[in-house]
Amino acid sequence: MTSTTGCTAASTVAAVRAAAEAITEHKVELTTLDRQIGDGDHGENLARGFAAVLSKLDTEQPATPGAVLKLVATTLISTVGGASGPLFGTAFLRAATTAGDEPELDGPMVAAVLAAARDGVVSRGKAEPQDKTMVDALIPAVAAAEKAATEGADPAQVLHAAAQAADQGAADTTDLQARKGRASYLGERSVGHVDPGARSTAYLLAAMAGAVETEHSR
Amino acid sequence: MTVGLVLVSHSRQLADGVAALAAQMAPDVSIEPAGGTDTDEIGTSFEKISEALNAADSGDGVVVLYDLGSAQLTTETAIEFADQEQAARWRMVDAPLVEGAIAAAVAAAGGADLDAVAAAARTAAGAATGGSGSAAGNSGQGPGPEPDTMAEEHRPEPPGIPAVGQVQIVNPLGLHARPSAELARSLAGTSATVRIGRPGEREVDLRSVLGVVGLALRGGDQVQIRVWGPDGAAVLGRLEQAIRSGFGEADQPAGGVPASDAEPRVVGDVVHATAGANGLALGPLVRLGALPATLPDGASIPAESEQQAAEQLDAAVIAAAKTLAGQGEFGQAHAALVADPQLRSLAAKRLADGAAGAWWHAVNEQADRLEASGDELVAARGVDLREAGLSVLAELGVHLDRIGPAVSGAVALAPDLGPAEVPELVRRGAVGAVLSGSSTTAHAVIVARGLGLPLVLRTGSALDRWPSGTTVLVDGDAGTVQIDPPQAVADNARRRIAEAEQRAEELRAAAAEPLVLPDGRRVLIAANIGSQADAVAAVANGAEAVGLLRTELLVLDRNPYPDEDAQTADLTAIFDELGDRPVVVRVLDAGGDKPVATLDVGPQRNGFLGVRGLRYLLENPHLLRTQLRAICRAAVGHRISVMAPMVTVGTEAQAFREAVDDAVDSLRQDDVPHARPEQIGIMIEVPAAALAAEQFAGVVDFFSVGSNDLTSYLMAADRTEPGVAELLDPQSPALQRILDALTTTAAREHIPVAVCGEMAGMPDQALGLVRRGVFELSMAPAKIPAIKHLLRSALASEAAGGRGTTAVGAAADRA
Ligand SMILES: Nc1ncnc2c1ncn2[C@@H]1O[C@H](COP(=O)(O)OP(=O)(O)OP(=O)(O)O)[C@@H](O)[C@H]1O
Ligand SMILES: [Mg+2]
């Protein structure tokens, strides 16, 4: 039973809260992944950032999906402390710009918002596909989202498609050698591990997809 | 007031420690550490960095050094979030943190300006071996230590006692490429050996422009010159005088740039430069000019012997230098670059790979070194060298493709474009182009107008700091480039682009209808084309005829020069696209600004006032004959006329007519299928021809006004020289008057007049031309629909009693 299918400010807040929960839930795993090929702080970094996001959401009530995304962006940028801060921060910021003042995002808009997020990460970090970064999760995620959107999917379905593809993209980073970020200093030794940023990207998308779906079937 | 310093590190202790270390050597410089996260854990803090930037900036700018990863990303983000006016004087420098900080602090303490402090930090990067700790994965060969060819001091000194002098450099930019080239050129004709350098420091051979540029000698520096040879003292005197003269740039402000590199205005995120070709384009920026460091397999053909390769290379260098030398002052600097003996000796090591391979390797090696220099002026010469080097490659028959597939849907950014590169950009799906240099009358810009590719030019270095992939909005009407436009602006632009597309589509549909004047006279709206792609565009845009088929592009870069069969085939392909539309083929207009790779059209003799156009063809009758035969052969089944460019007097036109007759006769004798041109005409580009048009009566069947060259010759203003661009005004009374004279005489002598220059496609000029009785307006294909629509509505409102000129104005606003 779907009362509304568009993604509203309320459902965006729910998505962000779910994302924060997912990060807390997977914090140890993400940090472990980062310890294998980085400096072992990715889980902590994101947990710190999203904790700050949650406390902001307790006091502020952004009126549009765009405003919610923007709040997440500025909070992550100033609190994460690692490379994923400016990267996810820019992603959410571009997403917010694309969402604009729309009160409600439909499927194609959600796909466009994801594409903007991807472009933000690429323009901030200059990573190419196959550099073993979060970009390798985002690219297939956006492709899948766009495909779903053209086939008429609603926001939740678009996000599910993105999450699924991101999950696969993250898994596929195992065989890659890192060429950006801390892990690039490891050279060949970075092969054989999943990239933490790609993994967290997949978790974030999955959590948001789930939340938007629940929100809309209420 | 001094330049400040910000040190960004993951570790609070590290940043604080480096700051303390640097402060010892530069107590008065504001050095702000920004280390660790907000809670002083390992990581970086947006807040700390933003605060440090503001604290360090006393108004003279800030140099930022960082350690790794998020230090760079977070700093970039902080700069992006800051007030852009302020952020414009914040420089991030990729250098080793400790060495860079000390070098920068010392430079700042000495009162150096922002650029100099940044350069000092960057030079520290070169001084430290083992790379800069950037995670960018500097794969493969880095710039390495000081190259051997630059270290002249290891060479034995020539015998004898040199004449020695010291002189102070007066022009602020010092010995950059152009003055260095000027000095090297002044040595032509003497066998003297000349070395130059700071007193007591490294010296280089003055004949090596790159070596001299590499010394980074600037205004105020003392230089020592030593000259060996019989005329040593005289040479020394000349050189000293040249340096003291300041090379004509003595009064430029320090840190300024040569006038023709003048910066465009940058307001917020919008770069205001020069409009090139109309239209809006939105897309990611893609830089052209990343040329491959090695030639593709098979491009460099190994010679039979190194000796032979050396000869080929020398011939190519001489030919390229000759061509470049005729292309203005900067061309001359390029000519000196390719003729640099250092390059030649670098290339000598690899001649076994063939001349082209050896040359390109040498060019890249040298350019890499220049680009690795800490001095921005020196580094900028790397691009010049590669660009200049390409012309030698072209002489060797190797044409590198720098466009690549990434331009699809993108805005191409390049210093300049060749005319042949523009159609290629369009073919590969580029939506717009931005040139940091060029001029509004450059051939490439004209081609862009023809193909409807929105283009902005002369952006200078304004876009240098934006990475490829940055979304830009190009407004070819306003001459602006907006960087990363806000969503609302981008959406609006997208809508306008879509609307323009749709309007163009509608106009195109309407364009197929002929244009008939109220008096029943029909005006042909025709296309100017130069290739098969243009022909397709002409048909698609509703061209009723082709008023000008330029043949230069068909031979421009062809090697060898196409023979009669090849030319026939090319023309046939174009004619076939055009079906039974009347087509005017202009025979080769070599010379002027149109070099032909395989012809000896040296720019001195064959420049705008030299042996150009028909003059050249009459001197080389075999070329004319071959081309006319090819045209007649391809003409079978089509409606083809021919015309000659750059005609001044009646006897030339007569000679052209006879050449056509000869070609037709010879084809008849050879029993080759052919068709005689329907009409024989001439271009009116030379004022003398326009003012005494009666001399062509009975000789030619029509005139076609080449308004670009006519304006240029009339105003004595080179249309490839940006400095005189504003003189090339189609509204100028002199031009209007000469057109009146021409059309009046032509009407009396019953010679029909067409216009095939840019003027024909100008909304504010087209109606005036029609009123003068012109029977055909020939323009870039993309302009046809709008011009036709415009003329139609103007004529209709005139017929309804409105005033024509205002109707055109109104219609222009609407279009
Ligand atoms: N240039 C980049 N482009 C895209 N993603 C990147 C880039 N650099 C790092 N990443 C992503 O960030 C993840 C690491 O995030 P984390 O928050 O742990 O930063 P970090 O590497 O510890 O930062 P720091 O540079 O402060 O050490 C990587 O797994 C990778 O996916
Ligand atoms: Mg990490």
Automatic annotation (TrEMBL), chain A:
Domain DhaL residue range list: 10-210
Pfam families, sorted: Dak2
GO BP: glycerol catabolic process
PANTHER family named in the record: TRIOKINASE/FMN CYCLASE, TRIOKINASE_FMN CYCLASE
Keywords attached to this Swiss-Prot or TrEMBL record, sorted alphabetically, are: Kinase, Transferase
- InterPro entries in alphabetical order: DhaK_L_YcgS (IPR012737), DhaL_dom (IPR004007), DhaL_dom_sf (IPR036117), Dihydroxyacetone_Kinase (IPR050861)
What GO molecular function annotations does the UniProt record carry, in alphabetical order?
Answer: glycerone kinase activity
Choose one Gene Ontology CC annotation of this protein and give it: cytosol
**Name by which UniProt lists this protein:** Dihydroxyacetone kinase subunit L
Against NCBIfam families, the record matches this protein to: dha_L_ycgS
UniProtKB/TrEMBL annotation, chain B:
- PROSITE patterns given for it? PTS_EIIA_TYPE_4, PTS_HPR_DOM, PTS_HPR_HIS, PTS_HPR_SER
GO terms under cellular component: cytoplasm; membrane
Q: Which reaction does it catalyse?
A: dihydroxyacetone + phosphoenolpyruvate = dihydroxyacetone phosphate + pyruvate
Region ranges (Disordered): 127-164
Q: Name one GO molecular function term.
A: phosphoenolpyruvate-glycerone phosphotransferase activity
Question: Which keywords, in A-to-Z order, does the entry hold?
Answer: Cytoplasm, Kinase, Magnesium, Metal-binding, Phosphotransferase system, Transferase
Domain of life the protein comes from: Bacteria
| Domain PTS EIIA type-4: start-end pairs | 2-129
**Compartments where located:** Cytoplasm
Entry cofactors: Mg(2+)
Domain (HPr): residue spans on this chain:
162-250
Residue ranges annotated as compositionally biased, kind Gly residues, are: 128-143
Family that this chain belongs to? Belongs to the PEP-utilizing enzyme family.
Q: How is the subunit organization of this protein annotated in UniProt?
A: Homodimer. The dihydroxyacetone kinase complex is composed of a homodimer of DhaM, a homodimer of DhaK and the subunit DhaL.
What is the name listed in the Swiss-Prot or TrEMBL entry for this protein? Phosphocarrier protein HPr
